[in-house]
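During the no-cost extension, the postdoctoral fellow (Dr. R.K.) reprocessed legacy sequence entries with the updated structure-token encoder. One reprocessed record is reproduced below for audit purposes.
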Amino acid sequence: MAAPFDPPESKGKPAVPTWVPPPATKEPLDWAKLHTIELSLLDSPDPNVVADLVQLTKTAILEDGFLYLTDYGVSLDQLHRQFDLAQYLHRNISDEDKEKLLWDPSTGMFAGFKRRYGWKREKGEMDSIEQFNFYRREFDENRVPDCITPFMDEITAFCNYMTNSVNRRLLTLLSRVLELPDDYLWTNVQSHGGPVGEGYFRHALFYPLPNDDRERRKGVRMQGHSDYGSTTLLFSVPITALHIWSTRDAKWQPVKYSPGSLVVNIGEALEIVSGGHFKATKHKVTDTPADQQQYERLSLVQFNASMGEKRLAPAVESPLLQREGFVLEQGVFQQYKRLLDAGLPVPTNREWREIQVSTRQQQPPEQRLGGLKVVDGVKYGEDEFFGVKVLLPA
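Re-encoded structure tokens follow.
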């Protein structure tokens, strides 16, 4: 039985204003139809309940690559405390710390503070998105804003729980979908060490866009992309902006607010290991509906990373893969398999993520390395890294 989250005391620390969730949109939208996984059911003594949970997880991953995760051990009050802290960081970070901790994506890492002016260290066009990204070094060396230092025990404990309890149990479910031992993905794919392994934890704040910037950006806050790691854990928020690409309907659909839920998506590492059975689903962040455009969007995300020195390949020992073969639809695995079949080396996980961080800096599809491509009537922007082509829907 998984233990629930038991956070450190907040007594004796500076007062932190409560984050007040903004109202959810009332607009009738074409919502993405995601499955909900109750993680606590993994502990059920009834094997039929667990078998049904594994089957539902399989369906969710095969159909969407995204799912809602509930009953994962963190209460709504405990989760909202983390939003309180994220809001506090953005409200109180000093100009000195913004400069001292300014990120440099050209190094292949998103560590530190991102300004509201694009996805490079150098000041670019206004996107009105601020972030602070906690990597291993930020935790180990306390490279964080002075204002948040008194609360690092809480943030560290939260990330440790999300990594070692929530994500580990999620990877157990996914290992079972592949019909492999429970700890297969945790042991052979997931990075370890520190609160987030080789991944990172993000406090992001999306400020409302001025009208001129909204028109210039054509309603897109973050361009369509897939994540390069193992899993991404997004904490559902009331402001509607996250959209996922529906391969069934060949269109973008918004993700509905589910209080306290995690919105989980599969990264490219698991698409490769699963032989294409799991999908690294494309997603983007757009402008908000009209009734939410005056609100800020506060967002917490934990990006879980695969082992940096590992060169990924499909888990051919999986009975699922042995029985059903590879799924060779358009995606990263299809491109990886092309290199593997030719006897060419694929990049390490670290090389794969660092080249994407350093070069994929939120360009519109038409500005990507390979320009615009049309596949089955759908427009894609094309990138290429280490001989691996990546198509992202426009």
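The radius of gyration is 20 Å. The chain has a mean pLDDT of 92. The remaining legacy entries will be reprocessed before the final report is submitted.
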